[in-house]
Prior knowledge:
Order of helices and strands: HH
Structural class: mainly alpha
Number of domains: 1
Shape: rod-shaped
Strand content: under 5%
Largest sheet: none
Number of helices: 2
Radius of gyration: 67 Å
Low-confidence stretches: none
Amino acid sequence: xxxxYVPPDRPVSPLTYMIARVAARRMAANNEVLQSRCSQCAGxxxxxxxxxxPVAVQQRASNVFDRVIEDKKAAERKVDELTARVAExxxxxxxxxxxxxxxxxxxxxxLRRHRALKQRTEVRGTLALEAIGDLNREKRGLKTQADDLKxxxxxxxxxxxxxxxxxxxxxxxxxxxxx
Length: 179
């Protein structure tokens, strides 16, 4: 407020003017005192201007506490996100383990079938080889019999030829005797 301020709508007496000037000076002094007081507590805490203001300390502590709470909440959100990701990875790992187990079971079943087929094939092969051996022995036996029969047929043919020759000779002799 200006020291020389006089409201224009009222007539001012010299005494009123003096009182107004004193009041204006006091207000200006109070403003200077207020300005020299702590800006944090506005002088309500009555501490030395050079000392640290308890309100400022409390405000800083409150700000730090608020930041700690915000950091804690952010960390909890991060933990929740990571927990969700871990759960997702565990689910995926479980699915992959199930697939691996199924693959191993299928592989074991395929190996078992392969071994059984191989064994059956070996048995069949062994039986086939034995059958081929038996057939070869039988073939050799039949060949031997056929050779023996050929020899017998040759002998019989020779005997037949001899007998024919004898018959021819006898026929000639009979004809000669008849003639």
